[in-house]
């Protein structure tokens, strides 16, 4: 897949309908048997799958001062859409992803998923939401997020076991299917994380994310710890999973070249605020905000040769070990409101939405 062959945005699918999540889930809401992707088609035509509005979050430092990480973030994701969230380290990207899945408690704003407000759920309602597995989070470092003492089959199916879905044989079969979907075989089921390569561990992490047939997958820097060949394979895998299983994705990254090849739309996060968003090709071709311009200028492959990005064809390869980072930590200074005219379809902070 080349940089010029962006995946079409916001596809709608006609899979079997599922029951939408509501803010007041029944007390006995348990896992329903699932044999394949189940996607809710009851959303209004103008209702996105995920809507984040005015989200604020922060933390208390040892000095007693509250430090703001997210400062009024607005973001939407449509069914089957891949959105890239880009920005330098410390901009709030991971905090936003964690807030969506309930790992960070926002101080203000709303998060709506499948038409229902989900932030602030407590007790059995929160447990029921999580057990349904409709939103899944893939952590940045699979070596740390995978239990080194668990076999792959137990890692992938742990969520199913918690939901008491299927018997052990059925869960093992589901794990084998998830591994095949991410390009691994059943022979990996009984291996430990330390017995497989870095690229294979990332595929196991993705298999764990898709085994519950989610509607939304949040990927936190899914390729930052991988070498160039593995980055290509994992990004192509994510794009294929979107097409095959109708999964919407939020991919968090500081690697613009990666987003050029897989994201339908990008949102640029700077100092806790979305400063620019729009279709990937338009934002990269005509960035309007000074911070976006700085990011693109610092990523020559994206600015000058989209086809040479992480999704470019590097030829056949196999999984390799060893981290490789592109060192793209940027200057975090506040560049202020944009002064350039936005490209067609771009939303820019300070110029109206």
Quick structural gist:
The chain has 353 residues and is an alpha/beta fold.
Write the layout of secondary structure elements.
Blueprint (H helix, E strand, L loop, with lengths): L49 E11 L5 E12 L4 E5 L6 H9 L6 E6 L2 E2 L5 H10 L2 E4 L3 H4 L6 H11 L5 H14 L16 H13 L5 E5 L7 H18 L2 E6 L2 H7 L2 E6 L2 E7 H6 L4 H8 L2 H5 L42 E2 L5
Parallel strand pairs: 3-8, 3-9, 6-7, 7-8
Antiparallel strand pairs: 1-2, 1-4, 4-5, 9-10, 10-11
Helix pairs in contact: 4-5, 4-6, 5-6
Q: Give the H and E element order.
A: EEEHEEHEHHHHEHEHEEHHHE
Largest sheet: 7 strands, mixed
Mean of residue pLDDT values: 76
Count helical runs.
Answer: 11
CATH topology of the largest domain: Rossmann fold
| Name of the top-level CATH class of the largest domain | Alpha Beta
Strand order of the largest sheet: 6-7-8-3-9-10-11
């Amino acid at each position: 897949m080349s940089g010029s062959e962006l995946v079409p945005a916001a596809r709608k699918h006609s899979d079997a309908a599922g029951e939408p999540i509501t803010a007041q889930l029944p007390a006995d809401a348990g896992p329903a048997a699932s044999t394949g992707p189940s996607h809710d088609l009851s959303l209004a035509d103008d209702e996105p799958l995920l809507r984040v509005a005015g989200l604020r979050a922060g933390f208390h430092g040892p000095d007693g001062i509250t430090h703001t990480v997210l400062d009024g973030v607005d973001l939407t994701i449509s069914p089957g859409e891949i959105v890239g969230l880009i920005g330098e380290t410390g901009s709030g990207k991971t905090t936003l992803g964690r807030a969506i899945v309930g790992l960070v408690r926002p101080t203000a704003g709303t998060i709506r998923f499948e038409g229902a407000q989900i932030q602030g759920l407590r007790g059995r309602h929160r447990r029921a939401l999580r057990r349904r597995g409709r939103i899944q989070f893939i952590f940045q470092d699979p070596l740390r997020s995978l239990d080194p003492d668990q076999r792959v089959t137990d890692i992938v199916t742990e969520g199913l076991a918690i939901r008491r879905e299927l018997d052990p044989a059925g869960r093992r079969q589901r794990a084998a299917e998830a591994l095949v979907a991410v390009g691994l075989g059943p022979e990996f089921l009984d291996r430990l994380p330390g017995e497989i390569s870095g690229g294979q561990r990332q595929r196991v992490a993705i298999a764990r994310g898709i085994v519950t047939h989610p509607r939304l997958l949040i990927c936190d820097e899914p390729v930052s710890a991988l070498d160039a060949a593995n980055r290509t394979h994992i990004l192509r895998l994510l794009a294929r999973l979107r097409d095959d299983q109708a999964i919407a994705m939020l991919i968090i990254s500081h690697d613009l070249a990666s987003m050029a090849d897989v994201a339908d739309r990008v949102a640029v996060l700077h100092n806790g605020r979305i400063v620019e968003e729009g279709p990937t090709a338009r934002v990269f071709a005509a960035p309007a905000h000074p911070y976006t311009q700085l990011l693109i200028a610092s990523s020559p492959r994206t600015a000058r040769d989209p086809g040479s990005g992480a999704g470019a064809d590097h030829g056949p390869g196999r999984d390799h070990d060893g981290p490789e980072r592109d060192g793209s930590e940027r200057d975090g200074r506040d560049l202020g409101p944009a002064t350039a005219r936005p490209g067609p379809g771009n939303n820019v902070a300070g110029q109206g939405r």
